[in-house]
Design goal:
Pfam families: ATP-grasp_2. The chain is an alpha+beta fold. It contains ten helices and 20 strands. It is globular, with a radius of gyration of 22 Å.
């Protein structure tokens, strides 16, 4: 999967007359001091990597002057965070104060409509209540009239970029509104893997040893089962099988303010259950704060066999301190789902539901439990 980081998307938005802060991009071989000196006043220094919540990771720093900006840029350049090497940083002017908003355009697969997401902006937006969802028509995004007037031109440009890129999600956060109008302080786009990536796109999935291990295991097993696995930048581990459920789950997570920690695709063959157990082990190694386990209604695997594989792979959770165990929601769909749910109950902090619970509702349950865990340190 590819993404556009903020400097690439801001450049595209600028052609649509959307205000962005004046900025410069610095690479590892550039004259850091000279380029940082192009902006004489206070600035923000940001690592250009496709990660969320960069401020928490120390990848967004406020600098009082060009000297501080150069020092911050040098500290970031060449570092590796969550598997991403920082090869470029963005230094941009400090924007005037104002009210911050979150704007995003995406596709709601559960309801089959494109939507605009709108809510309070700034860092930590993933931990807040889900933003307002405003459906719009591809040909006529008239729902933009529901937004505050200063945001409407920005939202229209956002929707145009979403359509032009044929993206999965385009996010602007924050958009700051002050006396001079709206200005976009951060922007990124998650692109559809089936659409050719535009210039400036970067790889989001982080190639690592987990994918190699799983592919080697698949080749050693009979039945022709295939597997792909990659780390993403979120905190919710995903284990899914059947029914093309992966895209639906990823969109549902974002709709409820959560981010996937991984993607995985296990397809075909008689070794599906065994490989899914191996995927569960790799997910556990990511130490996510929550795990979502989903079988699709059209999955050909035995749901009880799948549940037994999950319990075995996630057994090491019993050896972790209670506050280090992720909350788990397992949505089991199949003729033996009641038995599978009983098997899953052996896992610490696991709630198992059946096919009567839609995937979106299962994600909402997980989101509620994660919020409760964050709030008081105890499981929901």
């Amino acid at each position: 999967m590819h993404a556009l980081t903020e400097e690439a998307l801001k450049a595209r938005l600028s052609t649509r007359r959307v205000r962005v802060p004046e900025h410069t991009v610095i690479g590892a071989t550039d004259d850091v001091e000279a380029l940082a000196g192009r902006l004489p006043g206070p600035t923000m220094v940001k690592a250009l990597v496709p990660l969320t919540d960069r401020a928490r990771r120390g990848l967004v720093v406020r600098a009082a002057d060009p000297g501080e900006a150069a020092t911050a840029a040098r500290a970031m350049l060449g570092s590796t965070v969550a598997g991403h090497r920082v090869d470029r940083v963005l230094v941009e002017e400090l924007a005037p104060d104002g009210t911050e908003y979150y704007l995003a355009a995406g596709f709601d697969y559960a309801h089959g409509v494109p939507v605009l997401l709108f809510g309070p902006g700034g860092s930590g937006v993933e931990g807040r209540a889900a933003p307002r969802r405003i459906p719009f028509a591809m040909a006529d995004p008239g729902g933009l009239a529901a937004l505050p007037e200063p945001l409407r031109p920005v939202a229209r440009a956002l929707v145009e970029e979403f359509l032009d890129l044929r993206a999965k999600l385009v996010e602007l956060n924050p958009v700051r509104v002050g006396p001079a109008g709206a200005i976009v302080l951060d922007a990124k786009a998650a692109l559809d893997p089936d659409v050719p990536a535009p210039a400036g796109a970067v790889e989001v999935g982080v190639p690592d040893e987990a994918d190699r291990r799983l592919r080697e295991l698949a080749r050693s097993l009979p039945g022709g089962t295939e597997v792909r696995f990659g780390r993403l930048d979120g905190t919710v581990g995903l284990i899914s099988a059947g029914g093309g459920v992966l895209a639906i789950v990823h969109d549902a997570l974002r709709r409820h303010g959560l981010r996937p920690a991984n993607f995985s695709d296990v397809s075909g063959g008689s070794a599906t259950t065994e490989l899914l157990g191996a995927v569960a082990g790799e997910v556990l190694a990511l130490r996510p704060e929550g795990i979502l386990i989903v079988t699709g209604i059209t999955s050909s695997i035995s749901v009880t066999g799948f549940a037994e594989a999950m319990v075995a792979a996630l057994a090491p959770l019993r050896d972790r301190p209670d506050d280090e165990r992720p909350v788990i929601v397992a949505r089991m769909a199949g003729p033996d789902e009641a038995d599978a749910a009983r098997i899953m109950s052996a896992l610490p902090h696991c709630v198992a539901v059946g096919r009567d619970t839609a995937v979106d509702s299962a994600v909402a349950l997980l989101a509620d439990r994660i919020v409760a865990r964050r709030g008081d340190g105890n499981p929901a």
